[in-house]
Amino acid sequence: xxxxxxxxxxxxxxxxxxxxxxxxxxxxxxxxxxxxxxxxxxxxxxxxxxxxxxxxxxxxxxxxxxxxxxxxxxxxxxxxxxxxxxxxxxxxxxxxxxxxxxxxxxxxxxxxxxxxxxxxxxxxxxxxxxxxxxxxxxxxxxxxxxxxxxxxxxxxxxxxxxxxxxxxxxxxxxxxxxxxxxxxxxxxxxxxxxxxxxxxxxxxxxxxxxxxx
Length: 213
Ligand SMILES: C[S@@+](CC[C@H](N)C(=O)[O-])C[C@H]1O[C@@H](n2cnc3c(N)ncnc32)[C@H](O)[C@@H]1O
Fold this sequence. Notes:
The chain is of the alpha/beta class. The protein has a single domain (3-212), classed as Vaccinia Virus protein VP39 (Rossmann fold, 3-Layer(aba) Sandwich). It is 35% helix and 23% strand. It has helices spanning 3-11, 26-34, 50-58, 71-83, 99-102, 132-141, 155-167, 194-201, and strands spanning 18-20, 40-44, 63-68, 89-93, 108-114, 142-152, 171-176, 207-212. α1 (3-11) packs across α4 (71-83). The longest helix has 13 residues, at 71-83. It is globular and about 40 Å long. It starts with a helix and ends with a strand. Bound molecules: S-adenosylmethionine. S-adenosylmethionine binds at residues 45-47, 68-70, 73, 95-97, 114-117, 193-196.
């Protein structure tokens, strides 16, 4: 492993704005950090957490948590949030599969899934973050009118997610297969992630689906 990556992985858990799902008291640690009774907004597979950080800047009185299984990516996210002195933003090293063990029921108001790995093969369909097994997890932690947003460049994942929404009779709130052709986008919808910038440079169209469970 390159030395820089090793340093990040060993150092990241000591940062004040970084939590690990393996900590015995993780639920309480998160509640104690924010010390308020507001709901959380989560970014899943956050990477360097552009959504978490920019939403934290837009809404200083709300609670934001960026989640990724890779500690070295969380290291970058944490440093970026520190530079901006953000106190309403933290990061969690965790697998999305464990969210229902970490967050109490009805504690999350919004979920952003930003440019997840599309897992195009049928054999790995269950790993798609909009597969019904993940939607079951989100449902456990979301408030009743909570929202899930998917941003992707991938047509297969976009079509698959719409199909899951239809088949399961979920509340479709918004869908576009060319987000930036719309003129009236919200501040959140306009946030660009690292992967999103690369896809745009490659000429790909960005897609967005917002839905309730
Ligand atoms: C393609 S990257 C996108 C990063 C970022 N959202 C962006 O748009 O720049 C996908 C990220 O999801 C994370 N990831 C994939 N599956 C995950 C899972 N089951 N649990 C937690 N993180 C996951 C990966 O570690 C990776 O950082």
